[in-house]
Write a structure and sequence with these properties.
heterotrimer; A alpha+beta (333); B mainly alpha (182); C alpha+beta (437); A: 333 residues; alpha+beta; 50s Ribosomal Protein L5, Chain: A; 3-stranded mixed beta sheet; 10 strands; 24% helix; globular; C: 437 residues; Phosphatidylethanolamine-binding Protein; 2 domains; 6-stranded mixed beta sheet; two-stranded antiparallel sheet; 8 strands; flat
Chain lengths: 333, 182, 437
């Protein structure tokens, strides 16, 4: 009978530092260890990906992205970008000047608050909501040459109601449509809610979604602004009330508008059930008005009364200054 | 296999792939196959374990044109042969490629840095000018700092094109007004 | 004669000139050349400028036309050619589109003849070399400026080495500049295709910072991760030392006809491990320091305490390692505790033999360092049977910089090893039921 020793590296459940400080020789020692599940401590100070140690993945993981042998290789700079060049040469200085305000300070956003510790139950309790039951907001940094807004990406998604009421295969044309328009591979979109009147159930594949970045984003933006928008019937622009308060602007395009994309317009007979699009411009602007200014510089029209949520001095909140930072008056700590 | 199952299968697969832009190069050591090897009908095509025979007559009279169109559309969003064959380069050419890549990165970085420096200089000049104005005339400074609530670029503002416009000068131009909703 | 692009610009020419006018022959790497007539060794040994010019592909006048940035007007060179650049790396002969029409790396004649380079690659490569060469030159000019700063500081204190500067502030300033210089010298050469080619063919010269940098990166990518993973999984940490962040590559092998640098954690035969192991220490730094190697077995059964204890197997100290010579010379070092071959007792399981590499403080010889007023019982420091590696480390003021590991168990050769080295009969462990009343 083999001498039974606590096996190393096999039974993680029973291992702890205490275990190694008093390893026992006798064979039934492991049975007296605490049976609780613990996170095994790490003693070295090196960061590495565990998968790189697997011989199967070593070739894959050690080839850099720029190498044509890599599966991630993608040819760079295959086309110049009109929109990007325009932003870099003209818009960035203009926007910097337009958003400039002198000696601006950082505006600290509304943050979750610590409990005061008056009760023992405060330990591990989730943080208190921001003062005034407001939404937590990020800080607004001074507008400098480092915080000139630009469009980072555009999200396009479509919802096909016929995929719900008729058959899931109705989703295929709208998916292909979105791929043809944007040039990016779409991902399936699933319903998040059940709506009985629409016969819609939760987690059904009811559309497609795409995030456009880089040169394709610029291409899409230019097409939208120069080809599609001017020809949409009775198109006034994007509502000035649109936006998520943090510099991301959304609007919808109805099926008639979608038909004006050159990819669809070229062969309209091919497309049977055209669906509308929801388009969101994701920008680095810190507030919605700044994002609208940016989009208007790229030729996007806006209409209607403007909304100033989360805009300092315009949204009705009062602020106080303290040590080079501006605070909302009711959230001062 | 129903079309519904077929489409869900394509979805599953499309989750896992990394699509690559097709690019041209004379250096492919194998002649690249066409990306989509379909014909309209009468051709058996295979996706993994699935076999669909198109154009085959069934009792109900075969697939409808709508269905065939759907299958063709599915082939567009499927993952099969989206990426071109991997470029096979000799060691020397790989090194050349690496060198070119690094030079390209260097050029881009230098461009970016010079642009940022220029922007920074402009910003500093704005600051200095504002300070001077504040010292010289506080009233003018207050007026200069008074920004309009809603700021927009003019609606005629366009992204420049590389070619000149068809109409070089529009003499009947008048300032556009966007419809306002009350 | 047409000129080769890039890497033959001002600084390179200057360094070539400096190299050619130097009185002693410049040590440089054994740099291979695809074309014999372009062998950099012969080029640099030759002091005739025209030969060099011919090798690079420009006229001798071109070399002399540019002012040499390394030599200030009427003064000694601030920096030698060795420090400035790599002789072998200043031109890419085998990447030259004119010298090599077909890639030499393709071994098969058929492949070589049918292979087609991508269209436009050569032109782009030429342009890339020019861009990178310019960048490289600006970096070396920066190096020269910084070097002159360091030299000024050294001259102010009248010393030759940075660590001899007496003023702490000035020393740290000089040290920071030197770090910056090292970084610049790495960056200057990192885009050089010749450097990468030399490195990937295993012909790196560790005297140059860029090769040390590449070697370190290569080691950090897989071997270091593997080592740390095994140390953690096999619980060498914290069973012997509490933690580690390896900065030095320690490699171990046992001599013999099939000697090889084994992966950490391998189970070896006791016959193999009966010999004194050989070591290699790659520091990836251009410095000389002293190291101590300790081999410990933390799995020796301790029946009296119902536990395990550590057995000391080997202490080799005062190992002097120069940056570019990794081999450990046992004879030049001090054997503090001679090697005891592993001889696990029967049924005592698999024993881990942890090899720890410590750096000796300030490059001095191994000596006990008293800390504070606390007395250390020195009599038990080197006790083979009850060795405490943590106590040993703190008593000698050492710093753990590397580790390795192998494993042994009782096998068919263990008895022979015991007999050969006179280790006596070992205990045979077996289970016994104890009655509890």
């Amino acid at each position: 009978m083999a001498f039974f020793k606590p096996s190393f590296g096999t039974d993680l459940r029973r291992q702890s530092t205490a275990f190694f400080q008093c390893r026992s020789l006798h064979s039934s020692a492991p049975q007296f260890k605490s049976p609780v599940s613990i996170v095994h401590p790490v003693h070295h100070r090196v960061r590495y990906k565990k998968s790189i140690l697997h011989p199967k993945y070593q070739t894959l993981l050690t080839i850099p992205k720029w190498d044509p042998r890599s599966h991630l290789f993608k040819p760079q700079a295959v086309q110049p970008s009109r929109v990007k060049t325009h932003w870099e040469t003209t818009l960035a200085p203009d926007l910097m000047l337009a958003n400039y305000s002198h000696n601006e300070l950082k505006l600290r956003g509304r943050k979750h608050q610590e409990w005061d510790g008056s009760s023992p139950y405060h330990v591990n309790r989730p943080l208190r909501s921001p003062a005034g039951n407001a939404m937590a907001t990020p800080d607004i940094l001074p507008r400098t040459f480092r915080t000139v807004p630009f469009v980072t990406s555009i999200w396009v998604n479509t919802f096909n109601h016929r995929a719900v009421t008729e058959h899931a295969e109705r989703n295929i044309p709208s998916t292909v449509m979105i791929q043809q328009i944007t040039g990016v591979k779409p991902a399936p979109a699933y319903s998040g809610v059940s709506i009985m009147q629409w016969r819609l159930r939760k987690e059904r594949n009811v559309g497609a979604v795409v995030e456009i970045k880089g040169a394709k984003k610029d291409q899409f933006l230019a097409t939208l602004v120069e080809v599609v928008m001017p020809r949409v019937k009775d198109f006034q622009g994007i509502a000035n009330s649109s936006g998520d308060k943090f510099g991301n602007i959304s609007f919808g395009l109805d099926p008639e508008g979608v038909r004006l994309f050159p990819e669809i317009e070229g062969n309209p007979d091919l497309w049977s059930g055209i669906t509308g699009l929801n388009i969101t411009f994701v920008t680095t602007a810190q507030t919605d008005p700044e994002a609208r200014l940016l989009l208007s510089s790229l030729g996007v029209p806006f209409y209607g009364r403007e909304r100033f949520h989360n805009v300092p001095n315009l949204d009705g909140t009062k602020q106080t200054r303290k040590k080079g930072v501006v605070y909302y008056e009711n959230s001062q700590e | 296999m129903s079309l519904h199952q077929l489409s869900s299968m394509f979805w599953r697969r499309s989750q896992t792939i990394i699509s690559r832009t097709a690019f041209q190069s004379a250096a492919v050591s194998r002649i690249p196959q066409p990306l989509h090897n379909f014909e309209v009908s009468g051709v058996k095509f295979t996706h993994g374990s699935l076999e669909v025979t198109r154009g085959k007559r069934t009792k109900s009279g075969g697939s409808s044109p709508q269905k065939i169109r759907l299958v063709n559309m599915l082939s567009l969003i499927g993952r099969v042969r989206k990426a071109p064959y991997r470029l096979k380069l000799s060691y020397e050419d790989l090194l050349r490629h690496r060198t070119i890549h690094r030079a390209w990165q260097l050029v881009k970085r230098q461009e970016r840095e010079s642009r940022n420096t220029e922007l920074m200089t402009q910003y500093q000049k704005i600051q200095v000018a504002c300070d001077e104005l504040e010292k010289a005339s506080p009233e003018l400074f207050a007026q200069a700092m008074d920004k309009p609530k809603s700021l927009r670029f003019p609606p005629e503002y366009r992204i420049p094109t590389e070619t000149p416009p068809n109409v070089s000068w529009d003499s009947s131009w008048k300032k556009a007004t966007l419809p306002q909703v009350k | 004669m047409p000129r080769l692009p890039g890497f033959v610009s001002q600084a390179s020419r200057a360094s070539l000139r400096a190299a050619s006018t130097a009185t002693s022959s410049i040590p440089h790497s054994a740099s291979p050349s695809f074309a014999d007539e372009l062998d950099p060794k012969s080029i640099l040994a030759d002091k005739d400028l025209s030969t060099i010019a011919r090798a690079i592909g420009c006229s001798a006048d071109d070399l002399t036309a540019f002012p040499n940035p390394t030599v200030p007007a009427g003064g000694e060179p601030l920096i030698t050619a060795r420090q400035l650049t790599m002789p072998a790396a200043m031109r890419p002969p085998f990447l030259d589109w004119r010298v090599q029409m077909k890639p030499a790396s393709l071994k098969s004649k058929k492949f070589r003849n049918t292979y087609l380079s991508p269209i436009g690659l050569d032109g782009a490569f030429r342009e890339a070399l020019e861009i990178l060469g310019k960048d490289r030159d600006t970096k070396y000019v920066q190096v020269l400026k910084l070097q002159s700063k360091v030299d000024a500081i050294k001259a102010q204190f009248g010393v030759l080495e940075t660590n001899e500067i007496t003023d702490i502030k000035a020393r740290s300033e000089a040290y920071l500049i030197e770090v910056k210089i090292e970084k610049l010298r790495i960056l200057a050469e990192l885009s050089n295709p010749e450097v990468i080619a030399q490195f990937e063919r295993g012909r790196a010269d560790m005297q140059f910072p860029v090769y040390r940098y590449l070697a370190r990166k290569k080691w950090e990518q897989i071997p270091r991760a593997q080592l740390v993973d095994r140390l953690e999984n096999m619980h060498v940490i914290p069973d012997t030392m509490p933690y580690i962040k390896p900065t030095v590559d320690l490699r171990v092998r046992f001599p013999g006809p099939t000697a090889y640098w084994f992966d950490p954690g391998r189970i070896l035969s006791t016959a193999v491990t009966a010999q004194v192991p050989e070591f290699q220490i790659n520091t990836f730094e251009d410095k000389t320091s002293r190291y101590t190697i300790v081999i410990v077995d933390p799995d020796t059964p301790d029946f009296a305490n119902d536990s395990y204890k550590s057995t000391l197997h080997y202490i080799l100290s005062d190992i002097e390692i120069h940056g570019n010579k990794p081999d450990v010379d046992t004879e030049a070092s001090t054997v503090v505790v001679p090697y005891l071959p592993p001889h696990p007792e029967k049924n005592s399981g698999i024993h881990r033999y942890a090899v720890w590499l410590f750096e000796q403080p300030d490059g001095e010889r191994l000596a006990i360092r008293q800390r504070g007023s606390k007395e250390i019982d020195n009599s038990k420091l080197l006790d083979r049977d009850e060795f405490d590696i943590r106590l040993f480390r703190s008593a000698y003021g050492l710093k753990a910089v590397g580790a390795h590991l192998w494993r042994n168990k009782y096998d068919s050769q263990t008895e022979a090893v015991r007999e050969k080295f006179g280790l006596g009969q070992g205990t045979v462990w077996s289970r016994a039921r104890i009655q509890h009343y």
